[in-house]
Amino acid sequence: FYKAGSAGSGMAVCRQGRMRGNMKKTVGIVGGGAAGMLAAIAAARQGVSVTILEGNDRVGKKILSTGNGKCNLGNRKLDPEEYYTGQPRLLRECLERFGTEDTVSFFQGIGLLLKEKNGYLYPACEQASAVLDALRYELASLEIEVVSGCKVKQILTGDAVIGNGHNSSGQKGRQTVAGSGKLPSGQENGKSMAQGMKLPSGKEHGKYAAQGVQLPPGQRNGRITVRSEERSFDFDSVIIACGGKAAPKTGSDGSGFRLAEQIGHKLRPTVPALVQLRCSEPYLKAVSGVRADAMIRVWNAGECIACERGELQLTDYGISGIPVFQLSRQVNYILRKQKEVEVTVDFLPDYGQEEYETLQADREILRKGRTVEEFFTGMLHKKLMLQFIKMAGLRPGESAEAADPAAVRRVCELCREWRLHVNGHNSFDNAQVCAGGVPLEEVTENLESRKAPGIFFAGEILDVDGKCGGYNLQWAWCSGYLAGKAAAR
């Protein structure tokens, strides 16, 4: 059954899981977001017992805000080039194993009708809540237990601790899987500390102890204990799928990163991605609210390193809109090393150089009998043109015919190449995704930790982030499915 409850009800769930554990393998999932729910469903379909530990009062909170409430859940034009990661080969292999068609089949299989807009996939009703409800109902049909209000603080494998550095007996412990090779006091009689299970004959004091040396391939010493502030849960495998740092109010508070670091993973630095950028120009308030089709280019060391075209939105503090979101990741990583990044904006992206020069020549006949403001009317948004006129040193009311030709050309040049200086970004509160995280080099092809076998990762906690267009949710479905299926084995 689908059991949602407070953390206070966790012990009952925990005991029930242990009872079933005598018959079924158990899988615990930390985080009930998109990746976590997909992982739970994939694992449960393999016949194992699954429990989701969710920090919020309900699962899937972040899904409700995706796609402006419509939930862009995938893209027909799935391409690994639309993602950023330090290990593109593994990313490509993962997307080949669970791609867009698999996403479509999965959601159709749980009753969700889909529609397509220019390759973007949405629920037919265009309600993100329908996606969440379909997932919740599938959790219920598979009898997946959900413990809400449960914030995981610690994970233990045998005598190893993934959390605050104390073992299950309360003693200070090493935060690694391998350890001292000795059993805790009182456990020398063939019992492993974490589970009270007998060790193989002849191995009571050696490598199969709870903190023994590395086990042979494919073997692990006992089950994994997951602790919240008040309760403990025992599982055979655990999937960490509690997101990154983006939109922390939905539950992505970075706690998964702390768990990953404490088992030995070296995180790639995290920055907000798909987020608004802040600029140093004080006059932006004068053009705030303007929206315009534009080509935006990012410059570093005199070289254009990235560009995107789309609807630019100007704010009183900087720039926003889809093309800005797409570029924000690169800009924010540069800002980790230097104080500002230069971007240029072309408000006439459809004009080649020759067409642009023809445009200028053709407009010359309009100068006679008009003011500067009247001469430039009709080129771009009025707010922009007035600002560019001012920046060129002209007055809106002066005669266009008598105006300095160089200043007139300068106004036109600003329409083609308006330079802005980005010196910051909005916080993770405003970001749609978090870049960085657990490197793919540190997980297997099934997204299992190479530092702590039996622990898997899924979703945004991994060092994979995509552009706008359903790519990040596709990664959540893909990674959740692969981790869930593998954890169930």
What does this structure look like?
The protein is of the alpha+beta class and 489 residues long. It contains 12 helices and 22 strands. It has helices spanning 10-21, 34-44, 88-97, 100-109, 128-141, 255-262, 322-335, 353-363, 372-376, 382-391, 405-416, 471-487; strands at residues 26-30, 49-53, 74-75, 83-85, 114-117, 120-123, 145-147, 152-157, 160-162, 224-228, 232-235, 237-240, 268-273, 277-279, 291-300, 303-314, 318-320, 341-346, 418-425, 433-437, 455-457, 464-466. The strands form 6 sheets. The protein has a 6-stranded antiparallel β-barrel. A 5-stranded parallel β-sheet has the order 7-2-1-12-21, with helices on both faces. A 4-stranded antiparallel β-sheet has the order 9-8-10-11. α2 (34-44) links the parallel β1 (26-30) and β2. The longest helix has 17 residues, at 471-487. It starts with 9 loop residues before the first helix and ends with a helix. The relative contact order is 0.17.
